[in-house]
Amino acid sequence: MTQQTTTKPAPTTDYTALISSLAKDARAAQMRLARMSDIEKAAALRSAAHALRAQKADILAANEKDMAAGRESGLTDALLDRLKLDEDRLEGIASAVEAVAGLPDPVGEVLSTDKRPNGLELSRVRVPVGVIGIIYESRPNVTIDAAVLCVRAGNAAILRGGSEAVHSNRALHAALAEGMAEKGVPEAAVQLMPTQEREAVGAMLKASGEIDMIVPRGGKGLVERVQNDARVPVLAHLDGICHTYIDASADPEMAREVAVNAKMRRTGICGAMETLLIDSDFANGEEVVSAILDAGCEVVGNEAAQALDSRISAAQASDWDTEYLEPKLSVAVVGGLDDALEHIARHSSGHTDVVISSDDKVTERFLNEVDSAIVMVNASSQFADGGEFGLGAEIGIATGRLHARGPVALEGLTTYKWQVRGTGQTRP
Amino acid sequence: MTQQTTTKPAPTTDYTALISSLAKDARAAQMRLARMSDIEKAAALRSAAHALRAQKADILAANEKDMAAGRESGLTDALLDRLKLDEDRLEGIASAVEAVAGLPDPVGEVLSTDKRPNGLELSRVRVPVGVIGIIYESRPNVTIDAAVLCVRAGNAAILRGGSEAVHSNRALHAALAEGMAEKGVPEAAVQLMPTQEREAVGAMLKASGEIDMIVPRGGKGLVERVQNDARVPVLAHLDGICHTYIDASADPEMAREVAVNAKMRRTGICGAMETLLIDSDFANGEEVVSAILDAGCEVVGNEAAQALDSRISAAQASDWDTEYLEPKLSVAVVGGLDDALEHIARHSSGHTDVVISSDDKVTERFLNEVDSAIVMVNASSQFADGGEFGLGAEIGIATGRLHARGPVALEGLTTYKWQVRGTGQTRP
Question: Which Gene Ontology biological process is one annotated for this entry (chains A, B) (predicted)?
């Protein structure tokens, strides 16, 4: 690791050298960023929001280029919709930047202090992680959302977005960089990968010591590739196979409403319920599954579940490990809490699991024994979101166990250092 | 990840299956361990200390087997000394277990709480990391030291020690397991790898999702191999290239005493000073280097440093990046704080760096701008140690930036989960 800055090499196919050069510039910029105050960083982000609005015309024109190329190359409507920017969406992006500017700065927080018998004064102080690589698909908004979270916590970002959005990303990045530069943020604090070559992504993933953390933002394919190839620590979640367990003591109406919401509010998000577990002693299983079916959801189930409604077909073994991300649900009638806990332990992806119950013994056991990033009582799993958790924004939801778990916001983009103040102590 | 326990397969060369089986048993045991109270875990460790003392004869006999084989195979005296157990060392191991039993249990600590406008109550609660793999060399004490730290924080451990210590490790593990089992700790909470085959280590390193964290304990070769091959997160430090910068304002006597201690107290530990940076305006550089030379240390330096003492020979470029771990020191006379910060940024391994100064402006800049796990003012870098930091014990010192940094003790063997308590909330 070094602060030494080097000038970028001439166009090259040595992607390791390219990444190394980007990372060195990022490191130098990050060191300066780390010394900026809360107020200075917030002002820079507000200036960026201003620039995004001021350069609306350029950004939308660049996006139209991407949209035209996308239609040309036959992108699906869904992908085109992700790619599209308009005045409302751009305003949404700019307001989100202002919202992040308004979040408390985690850097400098003293996590613990101690004075040793020999007089040494120890403190653990929150510092930025450093240089963060963001690898994402063709959602131009991520270019801004991810970069501003990194900068708010004093990190430098290296962004590599999807090729379909390359013009949009360049225009958005130009506005962001210009706005932040006006308030003294070094240009290299946020860099856009200068090439779309996949080898450059590979080099990014291998740049341990130069890039401190990689955050993949996208579908399972992208995240899997990043997790498999990365030598740099990765903050990511792969699956959201979220369970809801309805205990015998559950309030029937609450169970119905929470279950329908957990599955159907939005079926495509990682916090959507994929498996419903119903205690065989719960008296109102029929009403719950029929409400879900009536809401337009396909339901597969185990034998006991199929007995609840004729519209339920038989689940395959693979269903219990499937993240549908669509209006489809697997339902199992189970023999109580222990069965439910065992099913969840075997099939949960460790993202979010929920119990509906009015029995404190059941809810406390569920909270303690389900080993997932988020465990909920009597609420919809669709609340699994940094904004809903009051974190202001999220860089992602982590299902790994180390560093940060669940919704990751500014705090997850920091680490700590030990500061030790002595008066000449030597160790005996 | 699954709680399902399976019985171990018959002796096999399918190391992936072997590790998978060990890890599944470990996971099931860890789930039970996680539900044991602070008092129960502490009692189990005290019982283990008792068993270690009670089985002294067996343990020392097993160790003598290893020692004999080691002499046979021509191990160096240094390696034989690491391998050797005697009554005193065994008593030291047992007392260390009791000390860990006396440490506060980090599990269950509530890290933060929040109540959302919609009534959802959030809390972040500290939980064990889960299943931890420890890979170490032929120091039998690590078998116990590492295992008890894992167990104290509610983790299961899979231990793979060096082949030269195999009999000692089995005897130590047997006593540990028997002592803990008497207090209800499942046998699989601490497992010794049943084979010494290197392929089994490779399978351990690849077992992501089954093993949550790997801690290598040993020399640079071991740590490098683990870091290169692991798909499981690794908590490790590679180098301890620790710097001490003597500022112009430093008290001469303090500078001399701290520098000599930082280098010479023990030259073989990762917190030992390897490079001394002296401000060209510091008036007493000669006295400091001559004291280090007189203490029996070889010194190499840059030109200006060589002018301080005729016994100083010229440093090679590689010296600035070398962890000597012996009575050898590289010295550079630098042009002040900024030069020192740049040198450290370029050459530090991010372990521990020290400034000797009586100028608060200098010390605060050093504390803030040196990007290492531990930054110290006016103290010997040899204090970089979990015990000296009041952590009671350490599993290692981490120079990575994520999860845990610097001395890692019980807290570094935990993570957190989000617990959300609702009253039927659905997301609009």
Answer: L-proline biosynthetic process
Determine the Cα–Cα distance for residues B237 and B220; give it in Å rounded to an integer: 9
In a shared domain, residues A193 and A281: no
Nearest to B333 by CA among B361, B302, B368: B302
B119 and B32, same structural domain? yes
Confidence of residue A11 (pLDDT cuts 50, 70, 90): low
Pick the closest to residue A19 from A29, A9, A28 (CA basis).
Answer: A9
Nearest residue in A to B421, CA atom: A377
Q: Does residue B295 belong to the interface with chain A, where contact is any CB pair within 8 Å?
A: no
A314: domain CATH number is: 3.40.309.10
Is 60 exceeded by the pLDDT of residue B114? Answer: yes
Subunit contact A376:B422, Cβ cutoff 8 A: yes
Residue B4, in any domain of the structure: no
Residues A350 and A378 occupy one common structural domain? yes
Closest-CA distance, B163 to chain A, in angstroms, reads 28
* Shortest Cα–Cα distance, B196 to chain A (Å): 26
Burial class (CB in 10 A: 0-12, 13-18, 19+), B322: middle
For A188-200, how does the pLDDT look when each residue is reduced to its tens digit (9 = 90+)? 999 999 999 999 9
| A265 and A203 within one domain | no
Same domain for A78 and A227, yes or no, is yes
Is the CB of B402 less than 8 angstroms away from the CB of A406?
Answer: no
Q: What angle do CA A167, A172, A174 make, to 5 degrees?
A: 95
* Structural domains of chain A, count: 2
Domain encompassing residue B340:
242-383
Report the alpha-carbon angle B110-B114-A105, nearest 5.
Answer: 95
pLDDT at A8: 52
Whether B374 sits inside 8 A of A261 (CB atoms) is no
Q: How far apart are CA B345 and CA B336, in angstroms?
A: 14
User: Does some domain include residue B102?
Assistant: yes
A391 in a structural domain? no
Nearest to A427 among B4, B375, B383 (CB): B383
Whether B345 sits inside 8 A of A417 (CB atoms) is no
Residues B316 and B218 in one domain: no
Q: Provide the CATH number for the domain around residue A210.
A: 3.40.605.10
User: Which pLDDT band holds residue A5 (cuts at 50, 70, 90)?
Assistant: very low
Asked if A58 and A171 touch (Cβ cutoff 8 Å), the reply is: yes
Q: What integer best gives the mean pLDDT of chain A?
A: 94
Taking CB atoms and an 8 Å limit, are B427 and A261 in contact across chains? Answer: yes
Mutate to test the interface with B, among A112, A225, A371 (most CBs of B within 10 A): A371
One domain for residues B66 and B202? yes
Q: Is the pLDDT of residue B145 over 90?
A: yes
Whether A278 and chain B come into contact, CB under 8 Å, resolves to no
pLDDT of residue A6: 46
A38 min Cα distance to partner chain B (Å): 15
Q: pLDDT class for B426, splitting at 50, 70, 90?
A: very high
Average pLDDT over residues A70-78: 94
Rama region for A378: left / alpha / beta (φ>0; ψ in -120 to 50; rest): left
Residues A46, A143 share a domain: yes
Quick check: is A390 in a domain? no
User: Which residues of B, range 90-119, sit inside 8 Å of A by Cβ?
Assistant: 114, 116
Q: What is the pTM of this model?
A: 0.91
How close are the terminal C-alpha atoms of chain B, in Å?
A: 32
Q: Which of A346, A415, A423 sits opposite B378 (nearest CB)?
A: A423
Q: How confident is the model at residue B394 (pLDDT cuts 50, 70, 90)?
A: confident
pLDDT at A45: 98
